[in-house]
């Protein structure tokens, strides 16, 4: 029986996985979205259920911008490991420029406060617990601070203090940006798994091994052991992998890749999590996928495929907490949202900042996970002052987003459709609209988004369109994927009018 990739659709990059008994746990990067580091559980490596987030408190994940040199800050490339009954997750917060780890006795949490690692100039950190009790911190050297390659040091896991100097243990095979390293001990060999080529079309996975955890590492003669570069395969930019031995003794790799829109060769869903089998040569070297290629479909072998978690199509906001699919953009203002102010509705209070700013807007969204889909929300909003605004946005970052919204302009309540593409910003259409409630809808295809609204009498009207390519990673930059989000703003002042969203419907279509 075959399974299909990606096993986690939409923006779920840099996957890392561990096994505890017959259970698998997986984490991915979350960048500036809060809560941070989504965590998933599976019994078969194919069907994953999100069981929460690792970083759920601002003290664990401060996202206040200190600089603006990149549109993607926050959490990069977490690694999850399990050792002596305890889970550990290590990551880099680019916003604070600190490597740290947290721990928990249960994957569902609660997770500890961060233990910061000082004096280590690396990114994409990983942990390895050796048989002799030593703990190794392995990471990628920051560009501009010496030779590029993989750094390693011994770590005191109780205190977070380094107990040895960091040293360069492998420079990779010569590809650009050696990153995302993981160290393993398999059959008395230490294997060092690395991503090279940049997280773009040239991305690849390479591997080296040594009899000593600190090297000298020899490169596999089969490198790269995974890459879809220079092919027409559906999944591209395959890399940043993590190896796992299944309960039946078979080996697998989780890795990132994106699915470009064929006609444009750009992508907007983000880098996704994929799975491929691993075979070992007689000489003891692994190869991922089908001779180093990742396909949409692979043989599941003896993995116990079951029923996947049902898709959560409609959120009616009738609980006292949000389900794990929802995120804020950066740390939310405490007074910016509520699930109790109006029963059976999500209430947003617009802040002075807007979607264009580097602060945290009133914003609650979920990933776009399908090229073809439709989302809609019923919004009740009566703006009282000029500039008060609420609606539905398709959001890549503060410089690239589309929205359909309601606002007050020249004393009149209007609906608007707006596009922001870098420095190009335009309100494409405006229409006077006096009803307090409106259904806002976005219908997505691989090529474009169609924005509509439905009046209280049930009449739907197409209001505007926007190309998906203008919100793609290749245009917008950064390392994330698109979000569908409800938002509110006072555009320079705190809004006096609350916006109530009574439901959010996400209907997947055929891929």
Automatic annotation (TrEMBL):
Pfam families: GH43_C2, Glyco_hydro_43. Belongs to the glycosyl hydrolase 43 family. The record marks 124 as: Important for catalytic activity, responsible for pKa modulation of the active site Glu and correct orientation of both the proton donor and substrate. This is Alpha-N-arabinofuranosidase. Residues 314-506 form the Beta-xylosidase C-terminal Concanavalin A-like domain. It comes from Saliterribacillus persicus. The lineage of its organism: Bacteria, Bacillati, Bacillota, Bacilli, Bacillales. GO terms for biological process: carbohydrate metabolic process. The active site is at 14 (proton acceptor), 179 (proton donor). Keywords: Glycosidase, Hydrolase. CDD domains: GH43_XynB-like. One of its GO terms (molecular function) is hydrolase activity, hydrolyzing O-glycosyl compounds. It comes from the Bacteria. Gene3D superfamilies: 2.60.120.200, Glycosyl hydrolase domain, family 43.
